[in-house]
Amino acid sequence: MSASYDVVVVGAGPVGENVADRAVQGGLSAVVVEDRLVGGECSYWACTPSKALLRPADARRGAQRVDGARQAVTGDLDVRAVLERRTSFASGWDDAGQVEWLRSAGIDLVRGRGRVTGEREVTVIGADGAEQVLTARHAVAVCTGTRPVVPDVPGLREAHPWTNREALEASEVPASLVVIGGGVVACELAGAFADLGAEVTLLVRSRLLGGYEPFAGELVGEALAERGVDVRRGVSATRVRVADGVREVECDDGRTVRAAQLLVATGREPQSDLGLETVGLEGGWLQVDETLRVLDGAGEPVEWLYAVGDANHRRLLTHQGKYQARAAGDVIAARAAGRPVDDVRWGVHAATADHLAATQVVFTDPQVASVGLTAAGAQDAGLRTRVVDYDLGAVAGAAIHADGYTGRARMVVDEDRRVVVGATLVGQDVADLLHAASVAIAGEVPIDRLWHAVPAFPTMSEIWLRLLETYGRPTP
Ligand SMILES: Cc1cc2nc3c(=O)[nH]c(=O)nc-3n(C[C@H](O)[C@H](O)[C@H](O)COP(=O)(O)OP(=O)(O)OC[C@H]3O[C@@H](n4cnc5c(N)ncnc54)[C@H](O)[C@@H]3O)c2cc1C
Ligand SMILES: NC(=O)c1ccc[n+]([C@@H]2O[C@H](COP(=O)([O-])OP(=O)(O)OC[C@H]3O[C@@H](n4cnc5c(N)ncnc54)[C@H](O)[C@@H]3O)[C@@H](O)[C@H]2O)c1
């Protein structure tokens, strides 16, 4: 069997869906190839179920931090109800709804594993072994995402540890859990399972939430410890054994931790083992240009091949991947029609924000919301910066939001251009404060103009006024 389309997308995660959607809206035909569930890692084993799992305990703590409401919230979490709510947000691991969305958007679906078998050609092997050859008149987009990495610790694989996938499908909460890793997945899921009643030990090789402002990992670590998580920093697992169903993890500090279950959260690897060598390319993380075209060994873009989302390793985040997808789908349509390509910095076809204004919210408690460059990142980029910090708990809106509110905010200013280039907020419910900073950074709004963006009283957004006051009023 064979079929021809304008665009062939491999991988129907959030990113592949959006590349196809923009291409179809640009007047092209598109097919997506998927070998698991339409919706990808994000919908079933990552973003959505993890946030659904975290939310009930956050809501309960939110009420407990407000005197008067606290007295009304006295019971424990209903673990069964929490897991059922998580399952409903994962659509019961059934992709019928997303398949219907594809149909309504005019995108075809071919189920099976896709491989690149020639220039502009993808061969799909279905679950029944049947092959289908898909030819792309204009572009093939690799949107195959990532899988979890399991490090080479003796005995670890044999212990069948959970990765994010098993953890987010769990139908029971283990009595005890050892989490290996100190990144976003480790911090979010350690908190989630501790809230659900597991005794959690977190083995962190270096520091928590490396890559963020250092105070983020410090505040999150303190809060996890307060909730009973045993956070061990500077500790690595050296050997794992299973004895009578108990996992025993030997560590390089000489101690052994025993637990009913193990969760590995040590990063991701690409799923680009797609036969790219047939077109002279290597697999691994796929390097791309600003319009998401794959670069060949000589650094030149391959005219017909795109890599979008996690597959290109620019930002392993759903919303940044979907942002890239909008640019990629549109530029594929523009190139197909011979229309101009707008790939200058901040152009409609360039994923500039990946470098300068990428956003992320870590859904721990406290949450960590960040956009753009950290203080260290701005220095590494050679900018002359000024860093302004403020105690988020000292803002009236935060004090009203929760008794004893603890948090911190940082703004990084490029002193030469007098624009904000980075911001980080750590505190309860800061996620939705982030977008103001994203607009300021992507818009390169002069800092003097920001004084005219007046946050309402008494909201937590007054943190922006406090940061400006700390920075100093402009002098005419
Ligand atoms: C636990 C966890 C929580 C997360 N939480 C968040 C969050 O809150 N917010 C956020 O922004 N990001 C979060 N992320 C990151 C987010 O999940 C990814 O950035 C996002 O899923 C990337 O989307 P994608 O479409 O590029 O890849 P994926 O979602 O991985 O989708 C890729 C798809 O391609 C398919 N595929 C792969 N190879 C082939 C092939 N050869 N043939 C056919 N199909 C193939 C896969 O089956 C999959 O469906 C989280 C990640 C984890 C692990
Ligand atoms: N809320 C969100 O936006 C969200 C939530 C979860 C995940 N994500 C995304 O998913 C991606 C993957 O997250 P992650 O936490 O798996 O990866 P990560 O890269 O964020 O963290 C990996 C952690 O594992 C540690 N590590 C690596 N190898 C190790 C080893 N051999 N032994 C011990 N520790 C080791 C690292 O030091 C680090 O602490 C992230 O880039 C993140 O952006 C986003």
Automatic annotation (TrEMBL):
Keywords carried by this UniProt record: FAD, Flavoprotein, NAD
Transmembrane segments: none
Cofactor dependency: FAD
Residue ranges occupied by any Pyridine nucleotide-disulphide oxidoreductase dimerisation domain in the UniProt entry: 360-464
InterPro entries: Class-I_Pyr_Nuc-Dis_Oxidored, FAD/NAD-bd_sf, FAD/NAD-binding_dom, FAD/NAD-linked_Rdtase_dimer_sf, Pyr_nuc-diS_OxRdtase, Pyr_nucl-diS_OxRdtase_dimer
Domain FAD/NAD(P)-binding: 5-316
Top-level taxon in the UniProt lineage: Bacteria
Pfam families tied to this protein: Pyr_redox_2, Pyr_redox_dim
Family, as annotated: Belongs to the class-I pyridine nucleotide-disulfide oxidoreductase family.
Protein's name in the database: NAD(P)/FAD-dependent oxidoreductase
